[in-house]
Write a structure and sequence with these properties.
globular; 5-stranded mixed β-barrel; 4 domains; alpha/beta; pyruvate-formate lyase- activating enzyme; 33% helix; 4-stranded antiparallel beta sheet; 22 strands
Length: 493
């Protein structure tokens, strides 16, 4: 799909309006306005996504005007030039106001680019705002969190209803149904099993859903219901099926996975012990675990297990005890620090990621400085930093102290810089060491990437890449950083 100068400019404006102006060095994907293709261009300092570049050269040849895009932009834009779909399914998020906005944009875009398609919307946003979502132009069916497990049946019934209406219409067309089905959150009881590979090597096994932690800033309990889980036996069976399909790594996912066992009388530790025995699965990773639910016994088990990797993600949210109390978190800095120290004691090579919320209500400058100093002093590897987003109906709105958006950006930048420093220092410790890496398939002619047991991203040069390495665990020697320091270059042993 080629674009003229005006169309290219409009796309750039749209990208910027969506707030996707992340550093383009994070992705080197560009849209070429002359060929209508996405390409990868190598250059030193790259512009921001959404910026049009007209004076570039690539390998000594002049390029037509290009626009730098984020990965999300590429996916969204590419969908506009393809076939018209019969059915469009939107699985929504509602963790932030920005997420709500992007969900609405995605719905509008799909309706616009797929005229006449049957549009289904589900997920958290659909649960929280089911009626209002159903009123969006072009939407046929909205399913809440409990109903999406029976999506096929709801879709079949609604599809038949719409076809019947079309037959009765003189023009053979039917208006959008605008149906919605959702029960109150307290009535959400079902658990929909899920074990998917997605587009990478790793499988993602959902072990738990819902949350009983009513943190003051969060709407997730209202969108996903109370904590619930399937049996250990059923999850082991899904892991065994993944192994038969050739899977080697599984990430355990959920809303609050440390709460596993409430509905079955089992425990997360028991689950890990059972999964560790599944033949064929070489690696497990725990997606995220609340500090108060990350038991010392679990840490001890992971340090000695066959397949659970030295890789943890522990949400902190704030390094200020005062702010943690305002958030209604169930731990303090001391408990968090104890868990980090214990992990490092048992697994010195462990990668530890941490969630940090910036600029929440009640986070005074003094509280933020306390948070920064705390994070600077603990031995964690990387920070997932995100600004606080006010959500309707949450208790946090009653906290009087408000941080403005400009200050949120300043604080986020400081923590992101700290995170990058910590990650690079962690990677550097392993230069020259031998490690085992699970490689992921790469585009022909491009470098391959993969991860070590302790989640160091590595890069195998394109000239050494081989599609046979996909989903294989190979021994390598870690070398120096790649160009943008996102990975360590490796040589095969």
């Amino acid at each position: 799909m080629k674009m003229n100068d005006n169309e290219l400019s409009a796309l750039a404006d749209s990208v910027r309006e969506q707030g996707l102006k992340q550093e383009a060095s994070m992705t080197q994907l560009v849209y070429d306005s002359q060929t209508g293709e996405f390409r990868q261009i190598t250059r030193g300092t790259q512009p921001l996504t959404g910026e049009i570049v007209t004076d570039m050269t690539e390998n000594g040849f002049a390029c037509s005007p290009v626009i730098y895009l984020s990965k999300q932009d590429v996916l969204e834009f590419a969908s506009e030039g393809g076939e018209v779909a019969d059915i469009c399914l939107v699985n929504t998020c509602s963790v932030t106001e920005v997420a709500d906005h992007k969900c609405r944009q995605a719905i509008h875009r799909l309706v616009r680019n797929n005229p006449g398609a049957f549009v289904v919307v589900t997920g958290c946003y659909a649960q929280l705002e089911s009626e209002s979502v159903s009123k969006i132009d072009g939407v046929d069916l909205v399913l809440g969190s409990d109903e999406k497990a029976n999506l096929i049946q709801f879709l079949s019934d609604a599809w038949t209803s719409k076809e019947s209406a079309a037959e009765r219409d003189e023009d053979g067309k039917a208006e959008s149904l605008h149906e919605f089905h959702s029960v109150k959150t307290k009535m959400i009881k079902s658990f929909a099993p899920s074990c998917s590979r997605g587009n990478r090597t790793r499988y993602f096994l959902k072990v738990q859903d819902g949350c009983d932690y009513y943190c003051t800033y969060c709407t997730i309990p209202y969108a996903r219901g109370n904590s619930r889980n399937p049996t250990i036996a059923s999850l082991v069976a899904q892991a065994e099926e993944a192994a038969r399909e050739g899977g080697k790594e599984i990430v355990l996912t959920g809303v609050n996975i440390g709460d596993f066992g409430k509905t079955t009388g089992e425990s997360f530790l028991d689950l890990c012990k059972a999964l560790d025995k599944v033949e064929g699965i070489e690696r497990y990773r725990i997606s995220s675990m609340e500090p108060d639910l990350l038991s010392d016994e679990l840490i001890e088990f992971c340090s000695q297990s066959r397949a659970f990797m030295p890789h943890f993600h522990v949400p902190l949210q704030s390094g200020s005890d005062e702010v943690l109390k305002l958030m209604h978190r169930r731990y303090d800095k001391a408990l968090f620090a104890h868990k980090i120290d214990l992990i490092k004691q048992k697994m010195p090579d462990a990668f530890i990621g941490v969630d940090v919320m910036v600029g929440c209500r009640g986070e005074t400058p003094e509280c933020f400085e306390e948070c920064y100093e705390f994070l600077d002093g603990v031995d964690v590897t990387q920070l997932h930093v995100f600004p606080y987003s006010e959500r309707p109906g949450t208790a946090a709105l009653r906290i009087p102290y408000v941080v403005d958006d400009a200050e949120k950006k300043v604080r986020s930048k400081r923590l992101l810089d700290l995170s990058e420093q910590k990650r690079i220092n962690f990677y550097a410790r392993y230069i020259g060491t031998e490690q085992e890496v699970l490689f992921e398939k790469a585009t022909r002619g491009k470098a391959m990437h993969g991860f070590t047991a302790n989640y160091i991203r590595v890069e195998l040069p394109a000239k050494l890449a081989n599609e046979e390495y996909d989903n294989q665990i190979l021994r390598v020697r870690l070398g120096e950083f790649n160009r943008d320091k996102s990975a360590l270059q490796v040589e095969l042993l």
